[in-house]
Amino acid sequence: MPPESIKLLLDEHYPGWLASELSRNGIDTQAVVMRADLQAEDDTTVLRTATAEARIVVTEDVATFRIAITAVPDHAGVIFCHHARFPRNRPGLARLREALVNFVDQPPEGLECSSFVWWLAGP
């Protein structure tokens, strides 16, 4: 998958400013918190919407997204981020931004396959 075709959807626990920064880095990124149609929706709905838009969901909610993945097996992709590696404070979110930029700039092998699940490593 070419980097320019990768689109992201940040799950509800990530701030809108992070999506804006990733967009400034040239990555088509939206955040659930900035979309009225997704706010307060369950993870299955978020994953269905992301799939319809060919967006990869970025989340730390492993348990609930595993359920969503079962309900939407043909999704566009899910990137899991461990909260200890990427805490939701300014330094942790800056590391997450850097790791996502690196992910998009150098996508892993097999990313072109649908329904991939990836654990994001630190920058």
How would you describe the overall organization of this protein?
With 123 residues, the chain is α/β, with parallel strands linked by helices. The protein contains 4 helices and 5 strands. The chain has helices at residues 16-24, 43-52, 62-71, 90-105, and strands spanning 7-10, 28-31, 56-59, 78-80, 117-119. The chain has a 5-stranded parallel β-sheet with strand order 2-1-3-4-5. The longest helix is centred in the last third of the chain and has 16 residues, at 90-105. The two termini are 21 Å apart. The mean pLDDT is 92.
Assign the structural class, choosing from mainly alpha, mainly beta, alpha/beta, alpha+beta, or little secondary structure: alpha/beta
Instruction: Note the gap between the termini.
Output: 21 Å
Order of helices and strands: EHEHEHEHE
Helicity range: 25-40%
Q: What is the C-alpha radius of gyration, as a whole number of Å?
A: 13 Å
User: In total, how many beta strands?
Assistant: 5
Percentage of residues in strands: 5-15%
SS field, number of helical segments: 4
